[in-house]
Amino acid sequence: MYLSTVKSGTPTGAPPTGERTGRRGRFGAVSANVFALGAVSLVTDVSSEMVTAVLPLYLVLGLQLSPLAYGAIDGVYTGATALLRLAGGYLADRTHRRKLVAGIGYGLSAVAKLGLLAAGRSTGAIGLVIAADRAGKGLRTAPRDALITLSTPPHALGRAFGVHRTMDSIGAFLGPLVALGVLAAAAQSYDAVFVTSFCVAAVGVLLLALFVRDHRGALPAKPDAAPVRLRDAATLLAEAPVRRLVLAACLLGLATIGDGFLYLMLQRREEVSLVWFPLLAAGTSLGYLLVATPIGILADKVGRLPVLLGGYAALAVTYLLVFGPVGGWPLLVLTLGLYGVFYAATDGVLMALAGPVLPERLRTTGIALIQTGQALSYLVSSVLFGLAWTLWGPQAASRVAAAAVLVAIAATVALLRTRATARPAVPTQPVEPTR
Amino acid sequence: MSTSTADASSTDATSTDVPASAPPGRGRILVAVTASVALLLAAGAYTVLAGRRGEPAPVATVPVTLDPGPRLLFVSDRHLAVSARTDPDGSRSLAALECVRTYAAAGTGVCIHPVNAWTYQLMVLDAKLGTTKEFTVPGLPNRARVSASGRMVAWTTFVGGDSYNSGGFSTRTGIYDTRGGALVNSLEEFAVTVEGARHTAADVNFWGVTFTADDNRFYATMATGGKRYLVEGDFAARTVRTLASNVECPSLSPDGRRIAFKQAIDDQPTNGWRLSRLDLDTMRVTNLAETRSVDDQAAWLDDATVAYTLRAADGTPSIWTVPADGSGEPSLLVSNAESPAGL
Questions:
Q1: Residue A52: which of B3, B163, B314 has the nearest Cβ?
Q2: pLDDT tens digits along B202-258
């Protein structure tokens, strides 16, 4: 697909080969910038997952907020975050300062950790701080993913996203363990967790500032290369390939019922696993981090669309397994493993698929558009699945969900088929053999 | 991490890598390492200091028992504590047993004991604080209750942490029959009837059980579809049915005819809760004299008085009482204490 992008005259953003390619070879064709972004994500995820792991403990036990107040805090801010994500993406493209926008996002989340200390018991203040934290996450995701696509030759995008998401999920896996260690060392003092989380997040911001290279478009030399305008962002959807991709991402998002429901069904089926409920997410993370890189490499070899669709096929099988013939521990290992495969084959791979389709000058906006579309689809699908569960019970609902995934796969094939044939085959530029 | 060559080679490209603005090469690594070490040392120092702040576990001066008598059971500084009803704030004795929530009746106690920040153990206690049954409960402890005869034990934990997009929360409420040995991990297994119709939604959550005198029927809160109901349950038949809405954390009076509960103001829990009373004969609701928001399952100390926990702005809990008939005004019973129960 990147061949067509080259033809249309859009810069692919591949960094020049030469000295840096040689260095990159040591890491298997992944650029130092992607490793730097991966390190930032790893450290930041340790910080944010530390807080995610203790936040319910802190709110309910430390502050004695009721579960309902916690739920209200937790659920309110999705829409605002989605809008901010779009605004951040557009701003990053307009100012050519993707690193700065990402940095503001990382910084905002870091400061929010200290905000938790300052908020005390006020539900409103805590809600505001958590909103700031999410806003930071919303701001940074699209510029970060745009920087990954801009730092990587198109043929190696799958691998680059695979490596980045592996590092990201290592952080997510380590976060709760670090939090546990801090709580044990600090005699169950939650503020020690927040302070540590802030310090770790500050290290992440520092790594970003020192080691991540921004990737700015050429400065406008001619009037027709004027800065990105809001109108340009709107025309993004007028381009058929972009429109089809956003549509496919939303359709696939609509067929995804959300982690909470999956874990809830597993927990209902396996009564004994009640105690392990919080560990289901950790199991998924583990599966994700183990296969993200190999699957990314596979996506570069056989094409990203097939791998993406394979990931959704794994999701359909996961939904069918929940009420399938296997039970007990094999069921948990199998479903969580497959669910990790689903994430590994879809999250980064979708970005790798999107990168070359989006013009470089609007890449952050485009990525934000896709991610926001998916996030909103998840919300709709959660509501629909809850309704299906109410009407037909969990077993029938899970089968309907599996069928919906298959329909979404078919629709995606129909939408993106033309470009599926243009999968990255032979790279045009010389690369060193991968090992 | 030298970038000069790469930058020079990309000057004629359509786009440009902008190197991080900082001293190049080794200098940048030195800055990163020094600052990271400093930040992590600061975190470590804070953690160690926070650890020193933790007070040593108190030891009981008088043996703590759960024998019935004119005494009050509660949790103080995360430890089981007992004091005399006549001087509840003065004469407390703290047991070595760590609990975050407790209740007791007729010589049977329940203690939700923290193993670590993530894991809690439900302990069923005899009058001498010996453990007769213990098992791990998922999530964070929220409520605990024992039937008046001491036979039935119930608890609620809060299972949160569904991060991605599910939002909301989830609770687990379990019941254990100390005589028959039957254990129900979650009331979600029970058949639910909402306003006369069979109900199978995914979002059913239960909390705050209170038992009737027959040790089989019970009342509890059930939430589904954004509404919170008072339900009446049958342990043997494994059924629950709704009785009223906007009734949370019911607590049945000793005479079995009234329920003290928290009522969400304007049916919106985010507005806080008014401590109220429901008369089961007439289904009439009366607000009690406490006007501050009460987020607790109240406990009846006798047929005329309910006790409950309130929290100061800094999180310090205290136990208050208010007359059950709606008259009078609230009064402080025990400071720095929570989770009250009359022994």
A1: B163
A2: 778 899 999 999 999 999 999 887 788 999 999 999 999 999 999 999 999 999 999
Pair B233, B254: CB distance under 8 Å = no
**pLDDT tens digits along A204-233:** 999 999 999 887 654 444 444 556 677 777
Contacts of A188 in chain B (CB under 8 A): 54, 114, 117
Strands (E), B170-298: 170-177, 183-184, 191-194, 197-199, 205-211, 217-224, 227-234, 239-245, 248-252, 258-264, 273-279, 284-287
CB contact under 8 A, B47 and A62: no
Can you give the pLDDT at residue A378?
81
Give residue A435's pLDDT: 36
Distance CA A115, CA B82 (A): 38
pLDDT at residue B55 in the model = 54
Q: What is the CATH number of domain A237-425?
A: 1.20.1250.20
Q: What are phi and psi of A381, to 5 degrees?
A: -65, -35
Beta carbons of A209 and B20 less than 8 Å apart: yes
Residues of A within 8 A of B1 (CB-CB) are 32, 211
Is residue A202 within 8 A of residue A110, CB to CB? The reply is: yes
Strand B273-279 to strand B284-287: parallel, antiparallel, or no bridges (unpaired)? antiparallel
Q: How far apart are CA B114 and CA B116, in angstroms?
A: 5
Q: Where are the domains of chain A?
A: 31-214, 237-425
Q: What is the pTM of this model?
A: 0.71
Contact A213 B136 (CB under 8 A): no
Mutate to test the interface with B, among A43, A63, A66, A215 (most CBs of B within 10 A): A66
Helix (H, G, I), strand (E, B) or coil at A294: helix
Nearest to A363 by CA among A40, A3, A10, A51: A10
Instruction: Specify burial of residue A246 (Cβ count, 10 A radius: 0-12, 13-18, 19+).
Output: buried
> Fold identical between A31-214 and A237-425?
yes
Domains along chain B with CATH numbers: 4-10+20-52 (no CATH), 60-342 (2.120.10.30)
Residues 6+ apart with CB under 8 A from B219: B209, B210, B212, B230, B231, B232, B233, B243, B250, B252, B259
Nearest CA in chain A to B188: A268
With 50 as the cut, is the pLDDT of residue A198 above it? yes
Sign of CA dihedral B289, B290, B292, B293: negative
Say if residues A186 and A192 touch (Cβ distance below 8 Å): yes
- Comparing alpha-carbon positions, the chain A residue that sits nearest to B30 is A210
- CB contact under 8 Å between A213 and B42, yes or no, is no
Q: What is the dihedral of CA A123, A128, A130, A134, to 10 degrees?
A: 150
Nearest Cα residue to A210 out of A346, A99, A361: A99
B340 Cα to chain A: minimum distance (Å): 15
Contact A70 B311 (CB under 8 A): no
How many contacts does A have with B, using Cβ atoms within 8 A?
A: 247
